[in-house]
Each structure stands twice: as structure tokens, then as C-alpha cells.
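Exercise 7. Given the encoded structure of a 768-residue chain, write a plausible sequence.
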């Protein structure tokens, strides 16, 4: 029995790589200095895995930016449009592909990024052409393997699988399917493996997570073909086929039939697949059991994992088993030992957690206990401690709040329904709000200036009193309200100056939430996120936003929108407890938000926005699980929105995803108004809204807030005309495509002025 780590976080315990990358981009450090930081991180990671007793330690799991881009770069799959940067150093070329390059008369835009399966990690999308060629540009896997060797570590190189790599990419022209490129890519792939084998690599991990998805036609054939050829070339190398993030299900027979020596499966996300896989696995193959969660921060429950392992032991015996992380640990923070601020993370909660370093140790413990004879004192103690922590977590009063549980049990169908249907509400709201045609609004946040940030920081540090902090915020809100009035915006916002982040802000005010200090996880490139942790039943001890909304509303006769984050987005952007289903946690959050919505209404707020930008991200990887997800996710949103009277107008907002394939679910949310990102796709999105005849009001974003560029009135007019062509004009709003917090006031003012002028022009053209 061996222990097997699929990959380790590479950002560094204190985000050293992020800082070094950004310093390099700013020209503050040299390439050598950046390389030194990166080498130190890798050596640190390998050392701690070796010290923990890991048998299969990964190499080539490191990346300066992204492992998919690494692969494209290694095999020279670099889009034509990056030709202008080919004269730069390799590292600069690499970063130019990732981030774009505007210097020395060169202007190339960044590559497209998208989500890595259902994680919050984003990879650089490979771009393929019909005549795509591949060649070995840099042999990164070999360089990484040799670096480890130089430092005395024997490692298992990790390669992205050929089929998954191709499927992750996009065809940039018609007339071919990217899977057809497998044959052309294969020789380069073989070259890389050859070099690794020649350098001494005995075991190679090949990641094929696409095997847990619905595969396109011909994929199975392509799998057979490429891996058949690789096997034939390297009869003596041990190959591990890794799958993760879900169950193999209908791809089980394909996966077990591929000529690999070891199959890895994810038993955290898909525990139930074990029986099937054990039955299907040919006798000569080994099985790697992914029992330690690579996606979350909870301590492994040894007794539970051991019961899973035992089943496999009984079926195929120790010799054919590996104990592994469920996926790469890339999606977990580095090291719990750094969390030493007891005010942020209490010792009781801390004992329930494990970050990457702790998870690695868990693998060793599980192996030792599973094999069983002569347990060392250390392992015995660890097992006892693990049982105690699990027991404590199960019964802790910190976690369990019967009132909250009862309330969720008591949810009725009526709780997720408004009093009347939309058509009735629309009339009542028209009466109550008296908005003009093409009403204008913004998405919520206004520029978070250096100053605003410094107030928050000083208030947190204690160098600014609450009274002074509040005064500064009030002044900022008042200025923004006055400016919106003058500009002629119809539905105002207070500006969200008091918020650091749209999820963290609510997490800090809700029961059942805690935070880490260094719990960073890579999101893309040098960007990291620190998701708050939901450890217990969630409830709202007191109103969270009423104070600021009420204050803003008191300044003006125009409606000010209350501004909340929706339950699905709060869930999606947190580390979620694993001791109850996600839907249950989501319903708890939904009830807390519902209470806030009702309190806002009571405080005189007539329009309330509940943001759900992450609703699409929660979609399961397999189509046949979508319906179940929508059933609870959409319901959770509706629960949060349905506690109010007909005349209270509920908005929602969505962005950064393609919503084409979930338009019916969006309509099902039954928000009175949805504001949605549309400008980057030139309103293409609206075609589906038109085909489907989206019933409620809609504000398609009319300009891209990600760039400082100020849109012209003509542009906005043109986009609105496109919208008018497909949506009844009475149902249209005019707004930017997302919040404005990352912008400066200067361009924000100009852009919104142009937006309001355009709306005024449209009102003359179209009369009620
Ligand atoms: N109300 C939020 C804001 O304006 C919405 C942010 C988002 O959609 N990501 O900042
Ligand atoms: Zn947005």
C-alpha cells in the first residue's frame, strides 16, 4: 500500500509566489530572483511531503501561472496572435500569453480564462486551429523532475492527459474537432515521457478528469488509441490514470479498460462509485483511493475513511491499493499551523480543520492504520485525537442550532412564492415606484478609493473609532447619492463602501461562519481568494445592511436599492461544511437573507437587489444532475426573495458566466428585474432571452466595467437598440454590466452620464 499525493498548492504558505510574480511583472525583481522564490516553494513542498512519509510525491504540479498554459507552452501550442512577443524571453512570452502585453509598440490581448471544472480555479483556454501543429518547446515536466532530483527527491511527474487537454481547449475555426489533433500531439507527448523515463522516472501520473464528465462522441475511441500507443512504447513504466471531481459512472468500463497500471478515483465527491469500480477493475491493476478531500478544509474522519479503505482491502488486498488525496490539493490552503490568531479562528474550530500540509500527514496515518500491525505511538495518538475531534465536531453546540434546523424543516412551498404572480406585481410596482421608461440604475458598488479602503483598514486596526468611521461612510454615501440625483439616475444605490467583499461582509455578520488568516487558494495566476468557512448552522443575529440602506434612503426621495448577496453565491464562494448536504446549508443562508429582505422592506426600502453572480458556477458537471441542483438552488433564491409585499421590487444580478443553457432556471427565480452582463458579448445573450420570451424585466449591461474605457452615447444607444429588437421595450432597464468598485470615479461619472443621456433619448423615441 502506497500513499499518493496528486498535487500540492504552489502559491506558498504566505503567498510568496504571488508576491514574487507581481514584483517581477512590475520590474522590481529579476527573473533569477523570481526563480529562486519558486524553487524554494517547491523544495519546501517536497520536503514536507517526504517528511510526512508520502510514497508518491508529485513534480510538475508547480506552475508560475497555470498548468494548462504550461502544457500549451511546452508543446508549442501558442496562438498565432502572440507572434509579436516571440522575441521576448521565454518567461516573458509565457506571461504575455497569460496576461497580454502592451509595451514597446506591441499590443496583444490576454488569453481567455475559464473555470477548471467546478472549482474556483481558472485556467488559460488552449486555442486550436485546423492546421494546429505541436512541437517540444520547453520540456517543463523534465525540468521539474530534474530539479526535484537535484534536491534529493524522487518524484512522480504529473502530466495533463492528452484527451482532457484537448477537450479543455477551443476550436478557433470551423471544419474540425479538436480531438482530431490527438494524433498530432501524441509524438510530442511521447517525447516528453521518453525524456522522463530516460531521466529515471518510474511512475507517471496522467490526469484525465474529463472521464467524470459526459464525454463527446469519439472521445472513447481517442482515449483507447493514444493510451494504447503510449503503453506500447513504455511497457515498463508505471502509469497512473487520475480522475477526480466526480464519479466515472458510465465511463467506468472505458477507464478500467485503458492500459494503465493504476486507476485513481475520487471517493470524496463520489463515494458510491467504489463498488462498481472494484467490480470492474481488472486483476493486474491497482486502485488509488482518493479519500482525503482536495477541495475542502475539514479534517479527515479516519474511521469513515478506514471503512472505505477496508472495503477495498477486502476486495483486492493491500498490495493493489494506494491511499490518496481526492484531487490535487491545489484547491486547499497550505498550512493550518499558521493560523495562530485565536480570535479569528478559535481552537475548538481549528481542531476540526486540515489544510494541505495536514492532509498530507493524514494520508500517512491512514496507511499506517489500514495496514494495521505495530502502530507507532505517534499514529495511535493521532488516531485517538482524530476520533476525539470528529466526536467533538459532531456534538459541538457551536455547530448545532436547533432553532435553525427546525426552521429549515418547516419551510413550505409558500415560503418560496411571492404573493402574486409577476404581471400583477409589475402593475403594483409601477404605481408605487413611478419609474420612467428605460429606468437607469447601477449594480451596487461605487469606486472603492484608496481613502475608503484606508478607513476600513484603520477601523479594523482600531486606529479609527466606530463613530468616526461611520461619519466618514455617511459622508461618502451622501456624496454618492447627491451625484446620482444630479446625474438623473432613477434607482439609486448607497455604494457598498462599508464592504470589503460581497461574501465576506455577510459572513462576518452571520452566525456559523469563521475566517482564516492565511487560508488563501489560487483563483488564477497570482490572484488568490480566501473563502470564509461555514462551520455551523447559519443564522442572522441582527440586521446586517439596514442601517446603511436606511441612511441612504433618508437622504433622497428617489428609491435607493437595498443590496444583498444571494444564498447560492454566499454558499458557492465559501468553504462549506461537509456534515450536511449543500442544499441544507443553502436554505439556512436563504432564511437569513429573507429576514434581511423583510427588515429592509420594513425600513422603507422599496427596491431590493439580491446578487447571484455565482449561481451558474454551482452547476454539477453532469447534465443529469442539473435538475436536482436547480430545484434547491433556485428555491433557495426564491425563499430569500419571497417574504415581501407585491409592491416591493426584487432585483437580481448575474455576471461572468454563459447563462444561455440555464435561461429557464433564471426565469424560474422570478425576480422582478434581472440585471445581467451582456456588453462583452454585444448582447448576444439576449437572443436566448428573446427565443424563450423571458417574462420579467431585464437590464442588459450596456458597458463593460472591467475597463477604464468610457463608452459613447452612440455605443450604448446601439446596444439598447439591439435589446429593444428582442425584448419588449417596456421591460428594459439601462445599467452597467457589473458593480463599479474596481473603477475610478473619473471614468465612472463620464460613463454613467452617457448612460443616462442615452436612456433619456430612448424615452423620447418610445412613449408609454
Ligand atoms: N452588488 C455587487 C457590486 O456591485 C455585485 C458584484 C458582482 O456581481 N460580482 O459590487
Ligand atoms: Zn456582477
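Solution.
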Amino acid at each position: 500500500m502506497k500513499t499518493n499525493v496528486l498535487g500540492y498548492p504552489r502559491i506558498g504558505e504566505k503567498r510568496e509566489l504571488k508576491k514574487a510574480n507581481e514584483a517581477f511583472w512590475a520590474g522590481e525583481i529579476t527573473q533569477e530572483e523570481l526563480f529562486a522564490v519558486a524553487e524554494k516553494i517547491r523544495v519546501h513542498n517536497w520536503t514536507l511531503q517526504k517528511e510526512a512519509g508520502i510514497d508518491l510525491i508529485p513534480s510538475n504540479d508547480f506552475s508560475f501561472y497555470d498548468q494548462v498554459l504550461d502544457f500549451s507552452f511546452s508543446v508549442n501550442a501558442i496562438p498565432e496572435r502572440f507572434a509579436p512577443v516571440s522575441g521576448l524571453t521565454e518567461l516573458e512570452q509565457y506571461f504575455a500569453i497569460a496576461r497580454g502585453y502592451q509595451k514597446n509598440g506591441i499590443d496583444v490581448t490576454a488569453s481567455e480564462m475559464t473555470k477548471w471544472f467546478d472549482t474556483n480555479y481558472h485556467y488559460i483556454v488552449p486555442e486550436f486551429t485546423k492546421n494546429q501543429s505541436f512541437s517540444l518547446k520547453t520540456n517543463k515536466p523534465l525540468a521539474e523532475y530534474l530539479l526535484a532530483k537535484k534536491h534529493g527527491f524522487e518524484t512522480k511527474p504529473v502530466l495533463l492527459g492528452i484527451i482532457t487537454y484537448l477537450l479543455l481547449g477551443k476550436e478557433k475555426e470551423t471544419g474540425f474537432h479538436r480531438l482530431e489533433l490527438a494524433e498530432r500531439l501524441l509524438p510530442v507527448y511521447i517525447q516528453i515521457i521518453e525524456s522522463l523515463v530516460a531521466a529515471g522516472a518510474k511512475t507517471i501520473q496522467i490526469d484525465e478528469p474529463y472521464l467524470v464528465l459526459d464525454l463527446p462522441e469519439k472521445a472513447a475511441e481517442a482515449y483507447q488509441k493514444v493510451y494504447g500507443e503510449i503503453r506500447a512504447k513504455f511497457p515498463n513504466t508505471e502509469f497512473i490514470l487520475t480522475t477526480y471531481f466526480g464519479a466515472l459512472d458510465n465511463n467506468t468500463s472505458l477507464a478500467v479498460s485503458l492500459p494503465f497500471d493504476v486507476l485513481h478515483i475520487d471517493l470524496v465527491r463520489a463515494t458510491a462509485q467504489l463498488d462498481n469500480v472494484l467490480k470492474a477493475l481488472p486483476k493486474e491493476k491497482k486502485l488509488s483511493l482518493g479519500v482525503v478531500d482536495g477541495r475542502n478544509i475539514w479534517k479527515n474522519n479516519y474511521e469513515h475513511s478506514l471503512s472505505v479503505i477496508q472495503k477495498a482491502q477486502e476486495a483486492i488486498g493491500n498490495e493493489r491499493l494506494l491511499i490518496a488525496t481526492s484531487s490535487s490539493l491545489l484547491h486547499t490552503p497550505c498550512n493550518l499551523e499558521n493560523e495562530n490568531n485565536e480570535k479569528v479562528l478559535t481552537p475548538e474550530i481549528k481542531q476540526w480543520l486540515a489544510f494541505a500540509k495536514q492532509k498530507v500527514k493524514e494520508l500517512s496515518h491512514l496507511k499506517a492504520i489500514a495496514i494495521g500491525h505495530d502502530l507507532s505511538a505517534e499514529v495511535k495518538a493521532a488516531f485517538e485525537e482524530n476520533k476525539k475531534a470528529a466526536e467533538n465536531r459532531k456534538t459541538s453546540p457551536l455547530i448545532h442550532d436547533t432553532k435553525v434546523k427546525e426552521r429549515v424543516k418547516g419551510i413550505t412551498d409558500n415560503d418560496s412564492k411571492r404573493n402574486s404572480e409577476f404581471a400583477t406585481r409589475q402593475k403594483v410596482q409601477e404605481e408605487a415606484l413611478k419609474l420612467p421608461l428605460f429606468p437607469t440604475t447601477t449594480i451596487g458598488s461605487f469606486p472603492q478609493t484608496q481613502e475608503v479602503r484606508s478607513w476600513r483598514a484603520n477601523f479594523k486596526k482600531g486606529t479609527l473609532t466606530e463613530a468616526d468611521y461611520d461619519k466618514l461612510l455617511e459622508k461618502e454615501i451622501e456624496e454618492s447619492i447627491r451625484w446620482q440625483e444630479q446625474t438623473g439616475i432613477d434607482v439609486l444605490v448607497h455604494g457598498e463602501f462599508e464592504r470589503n467583499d460581497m461574501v465576506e461582509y455577510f459572513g462576518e455578520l452571520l452566525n456559523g461562519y469563521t475566517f482564516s488568516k492565511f487560508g488563501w487558494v489560487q483563483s488564477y495566476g497570482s490572484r488568490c481568494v480566501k473563502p470564509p468557512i461555514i462551520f455551523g448552522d447559519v443564522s442572522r443575529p441582527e440586521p446586517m445592511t439596514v442601517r446603511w440602506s436606511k441612511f441612504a434612503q433618508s437622504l433622497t426621495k428617489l428609491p435607493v436599492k437595498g443590496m444583498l448577496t444571494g444564498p447560492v453565491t454566499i454558499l458557492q464562494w465559501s468553504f462549506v461544511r461537509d456534515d450536511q448536504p449543500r442544499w441544507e446549508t443553502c436554505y439556512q443562508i436563504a432564511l437569513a437573507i429573507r429576514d434581511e429582505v423583510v427588515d429592509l422592506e420594513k425600513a422603507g426600502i422599496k427596491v431590493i437587489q439580491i446578487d447571484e453572480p455565482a449561481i451558474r458556477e454551482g452547476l454539477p458537471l453532469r447534465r443529469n444532475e442539473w435538475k436536482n441542483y436547480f430545484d434547491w438552488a433556485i428555491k433557495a433564491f426564491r425563499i430569500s426573495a419571497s417574504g415581501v409585499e407585491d409592491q416591493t421590487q426584487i432585483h437580481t444580478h448575474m455576471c461572468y458566466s454563459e447563462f444561455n443553457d440555464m435561461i429557464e432556471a433564471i426565469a424560474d427565480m422570478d425576480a422582478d428585474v434581472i440585471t445581467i452582463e451582456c456588453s462583452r458579448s454585444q448582447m448576444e445573450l439576449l437572443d436566448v432571452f428573446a427565443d424563450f420570451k423571458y417574462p420579467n424585466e431585464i437590464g442588459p449591461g450596456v458597458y463593460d466595467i472591467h475597463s477604464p474605457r468610457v463608452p459613447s452615447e452612440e455605443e450604448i444607444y446601439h446596444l439598447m437598440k439591439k435589446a429593444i429588437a428582442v425584448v419588449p421595450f417596456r421591460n428594459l432597464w439601462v445599467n452597467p454590466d457589473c458593480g463599479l468598485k474596481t473603477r475610478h470615479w473619473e471614468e465612472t461619472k463620464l460613463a454613467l452620464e452617457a448612460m443616462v443621456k442615452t436612456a433619456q433619448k430612448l424615452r423620447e423615441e418610445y412613449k408609454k
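Remark. Residues 292 and 300 are 6 Å apart (CA to CA). Students should compare their own answers with the one above.
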